[in-house]
Amino acid sequence: MAAPSKKVLEVFVSKIPWTVATKEMKEYFGQFGTVKRCLLPFDKETGFHRGFCWVGFSTEEGLNNALQKDPHILEGAKVNDRNTFLGGLNGFSFKKKRSAY
Predict the structure, then answer these.
(1) Would the keyword Nucleotide-binding be found if you checked this record's keyword annotation (predicted)?
(2) pLDDT digits (tens, 9 = 90+) for 27-47
(3) What is the H or E stretch that residue 101 is in?
């Protein structure tokens, strides 16, 4: 019997200004729902983040609320949140938010 899959409710965000940190990402996306995790990778050589992150929500409602807002503006810059990740270990899917860029 297969274990039930745990849904992953994440949005991939790119074009993040270098002045924005994990704390600001969590605070901003927290207005849409509870942020379960925020992964903002850093470059070991420069010490700056790489300009993209994954924001995971506790509920599908939080994810949908974030996706309905357009555009997302952080530190005066429009960030790109076109892709969402829905699924889990047994049922992973990748969906584009919009068909036209």
Answers:
(1) no
(2) 999 999 999 999 999 999 999
(3) none
Regions of the chain short of the pLDDT cut 50: 87-101
Two tokens at 19? 């002045």
Q: Where are the domains of the chain?
A: 8-96
Burial tier of 73 (Cβ tally within 10 Å: 0-12, 13-18, 19+): exposed
| Domain 8-96 class, CATH top level | alpha beta
Report residue 61 as tokens.
């409602």
Q: Give the closest residue to 8 by CA, choosing from 74, 71, 90.
A: 90
Picking from 12, 81, 17, 84, the residue whose alpha carbon sits closest to that of residue 50 is 17
Distance CA 50, CA 29 (A): 19
